[in-house]
Amino acid sequence: xxxxxxxxxxxxxxxxxxxxxxxxxxxxxxxxxxxxxxxxxxxxxxxxxxxxxxxxxxxxxxxxxxxxxxxxxxxxxxxxxxxxxxxxxxxxxxxxxxxxxxxxxxxxxxxxxxxxxxxxxxxxxxxxxxxxxxxxxxxxxxxxxxxxxxxxxxxxxxxxxxxx
Length: 164
What we know:
Number of domains: 1
Order of helices and strands: EEEHEHHEH
Number of strands: 5
CATH superfamily: Ribonuclease H-like superfamily/Ribonuclease H
CATH class: Alpha Beta
Low-confidence stretches: none
CATH architecture: 2-Layer Sandwich
Mean pLDDT: 90
Strand order of the largest sheet: 3-2-1-4-5
Largest sheet: 5 strands, mixed
């Protein structure tokens, strides 16, 4: 099971809140995705990405429990693909946060889940960040690439850029 987590910083013009996006892939197909405005204003890209990662890891934990109930327990850590080095360092406990208590709790939750082997981060290039499609409007070519990557076919009456 692999999960892509991403955020845009201050993408909502009215509130300057960021949008979290994540996509969970299993056996080559997308099984869960989220696009949600964050409840607090992030002060940096690392903050926005950490909040998005925390939400994604919570989903991973729920899905791991569900798979265990189905007799498909995941023994290896689930991979979370993240394109922000600072967010990865925070979750690994290599960076310290002097932010408010609610934010510190999120960082400790990520670090605790990482230490317990629930997930492992893998750095992904920004152009390969599948969750981008859930955080902002994308150019058509990028949207079509990510749609295909998720295994989602266009409606029969829509011509894809690749077909033109």
